[in-house]
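Practice problem: predict the structure.
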Amino acid sequence: MATTDERLTAFGIQLLHIHDRLRAELALLRSDMDAYLDGGQGRPRELLAHCAAFCTALTRHHTGEDDHVFPALAAQYPALAPTLASLREDHGLIADILTRLDALVAEADPADAERVRRELDGLAAIMESHFTYEERKITKALDDLEVPFEPVAFDLPTLPPPRD
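Answer:
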């Protein structure tokens, strides 16, 4: 069984792993959506499931940060307050994109290809900026955090297995 210090150090590392997995899943989703919207046959059920799983995973990740991780960091590192506020603001922007994307994908039609691509491109851009900033600003604080809390905030729902 890991000690609190080992678990929290792993928590900072886990943040990086989760971000990498979400990046990879978004890249796959973009590729799959492009293939469909570029004239693929019928909307595959797997594509809809993949999109729903991805959106759920990203939302759950950010909700966990907002509800559990950020308050713990703010309590120990008050100087991180502006950073945490900025990250929460990004979470709101990402949630708005996910809402629009969910509506578009549910009714996806090849005629909407550019709208879907714009939303996915916007999501990819803000996610990358957000993840890079977050990794740079809070990973060390997560590793050094002295209060014990359960690392449930970064759990992901089951996503399709990564493809090669």
